Amino acid sequence: MPDSRQSLGKKGETLALNFLKENGYTILTRNYRRRTGEIDIIAMEGDYLVFIEVKTRTGTSHGHPLEAITPRKQRQISKVAQCYLAEKNLFDTAARFDVVSIVMSRNNQPQVEIITNAFEVY
């Protein structure tokens, strides 16, 4: 990933963390990596264990950030979530997948949106 995209991604994750905390999420871990992929943020929100993907864009000319969560990406995230659940023995815990979408505007005022229960794994 080129430095500018990496920098944008890190900035987006920091914005997402602050947004999530302000909205009652308790952050458990960040950048949980396994051989099959990565989950940006894992948190608790109420009784739910939440696996959160963060997508940040500088605009929407190449599509909305949510469009980047393809079925393939959903499967990848769900495989990594299964690893986390197994590692922590949390299979009896209610879990869901949320997506935080961030669009940076020219005046540096980010538009942050959270989609709760953004997708399900079948």
Account of the 3D structure:
The protein is α+β, with helices and mostly antiparallel strands and 122 residues long. 31% of the residues lie in helices and 38% in strands. The protein has two helices and five strands. It has helices spanning 3-22, 71-88; strands at 26-34, 37-45, 48-57, 95-103, 111-119. It has a five-stranded mixed beta sheet, with helices on both faces. A hairpin with a 7-residue loop joins strand 4 (95-103) and strand 5 (111-119). The protein starts with a helix and ends with a strand.
Main β-sheet: number of strands, strand sense, barrel status?
Answer: 5 strands, mixed
Per DSSP, the total helix count is: 2
Strand content: 35-45%
| Spatial gap, N to C terminus | 31 Å
Descriptive terms for the model:
122 residues, alpha+beta, 5-stranded mixed β-sheet, 2 helices, 5 strands, 31% helix, 38% strand, globular
In a few lines, what is going on in this structure?
With 122 residues, the chain is an alpha+beta fold. The chain has two helices and five strands, in the order H-E-E-E-H-E-E.
SSE arrangement:
Blueprint: H1 3-22, E1 26-34, E2 37-45, E3 48-57, H2 71-88, E4 95-103, E5 111-119
Parallel strand pairs: 3-4
Antiparallel strand pairs: 1-2, 2-3, 4-5
